[in-house]
Amino acid sequence: MTTLIAPFTRFPTEVFNIPTTSEGNWPRRPLMEVTQALLDRARAAEFEFGEDTAIVAVQHMLWQTVDLLRAVIYMGVRPENIFALGKVYSNSGPVIRALREMGVTVTESTMPEPGQFNEYFEQDVTRLWEVVADGVGRRDIKRIIVLDDAGRCITNTPPELIRKYNINGVEQTSFGMFVFEVKPPAFAVTSWARSAVKLQIGGPIFSHILIEKLNTEFLRGQSLDGHEVGIIGLGSIGMGMANLAARMGNRVMFYDPNPDLQVPRYLRDRITRLDSLEELMVSCDDVLGCSGRNPFKDKWPMKYRPGIRLFSGSSGDQEFGPIIRDLKDGSSFIVDPDTWDITSEDGPCGPIFIAFHGYPYNFVSLGGEAVPTHVVQLETGGLLAGLMQARSYLALCEEGREQNAGVHRVSPEAQRFVLDTWLSVMDDRGIDVEECYGYDPAMLMEAKYKGWFVDNTEPHPRPGQQSTRSIEDVMRHMIETKLRRKNDARPYYPPVDQDVLRLVSAKPIGPTTNRPGVVYLSQTRDH
């Protein structure tokens, strides 16, 4: 077992043009447009997380996380009260260094044995909570917000901390929501994972990047066309993958165990549904795991096409974990030390290839970006909105107006604000999102109206559910509260340590008449 602060980077940093902290780029850049827009609304509504709030975050150590946590700091969380853990397959060394220089505590990741990511990652989460308990125990902390990726941090929150602090969570992956079905969280969770924007808009973005990585990293500049491509799971990622693969001239087949699944109209004549997972494995050259679950559990071994190539689009290695664990005892099991690709000649039906340790292939570059940060700010903005909603819900709980329990949807108004801002930014940057990500034009038209967000977001509240109405009223007020003065060049002083602000400020330090580390905003609230 090898413990890593961050995994090796296969190529020099310069290949990916990743800025280092010594260059002063990322920690001093202006926030992305979506996070800045939410910050402006928060300030106009006089919203703050508070210095007595701690954030515990399981996040990919990418530049988008720097953008997100800078916004959280500007909203009043002290950097030393932020505790973060990455994932070994997406950790970027320069990003971790940047976060640590900002004052954020980033704990170490462990390099797992093949096929055992979840077991090793739970150990990492346990160590994270030990660090959190020690840190918050020495500070005046009243509440903790857990920002999770795949549900393990929320479901492993120590009982003694649950008894001592007010805790709320935000979950960003469907896999995390599946974990909650087996082990319900002990406190309220806001589900960005099942929001309309995450599912309908975000899914095609991540699908596009995965296909792009296949073309550039695996096929070395060639295109994935003329193949027989299989998709496991026709959720948001699976639909995006199927759409893009079909557009590229591949024969696309899919398997999904849900008998009630409705295939979107724009895909019905372009992809073929198969009756079993084994039929898919026998029929395809390349299989993309997009189920977000563990599809081969209790089903492996099975027949497959010799030489089949497997790529994951889901968190961790659960898509192909049972296959990896079965193959790794064979004499021909090989893990390439540079690419982390797994090959075996001893599979039940002959040769088999599993890319990148079975981890999500969109992270294969091991750089500071999986999706370009200016594009993935849609996700960053959604997570920030979820955190703002979680803090607001805790306030209602602390006032005795709500119970700290259940899974709650992200406010439709907040989602609409994030999406509208993002679409405007993409248009300003000259990115045709419909063409680039294969969105259904009818869907984008429907997304102009609140009803689309309500209909396509889970969980659906029960009729008359007061908790949903209360928190969404709070979020509606925050989103609709516009700044009282526009184009005000006066500085705004975030309520955080000035030494930290010097590291993360959006503008250089101004004249001596200004406070050090001041952040200048194009739009600020009156003092």
Structure description:
By secondary structure, the protein is of the alpha/beta class. It has three domains: 2-198 and 367-411 and 463-480, Adenosylhomocysteinase-like (Rossmann fold), CATH 3.40.50; 202-363, NAD(P)-binding Rossmann-like Domain (Rossmann fold, 3-Layer(aba) Sandwich), CATH 3.40.50.720; 485-524, no CATH class. It contains 19 helices and 21 strands. The protein has helices spanning 13-16, 33-44, 63-74, 93-102, 117-137, 152-155, 159-164, 174-182, 196-218, 236-247, 277-283, 321-327, 373-398, 412-428, 433-437, 441-446, 450-455, 466-480, 498-504; strands spanning 2-4, 53-58, 82-85, 105-107, 109-111, 143-148, 166-171, 189-191, 228-232, 251-255, 271-273, 286-289, 308-312, 334-335, 342-347, 350-354, 407-409, 485-486, 491-492, 519-520, 523-524. It has an eight-stranded mixed β-sheet, with helices on both faces. It has a seven-stranded parallel β-sheet with strand order 4-3-2-6-7-8-17, with helices on both faces. It has a two-stranded antiparallel sheet with strand order 1-5. Strand 9 (228-232), helix 10 and strand 10 (251-255) form a beta-alpha-beta unit. Helix 3 (63-74) runs parallel beside helix 13. The chain is globular.
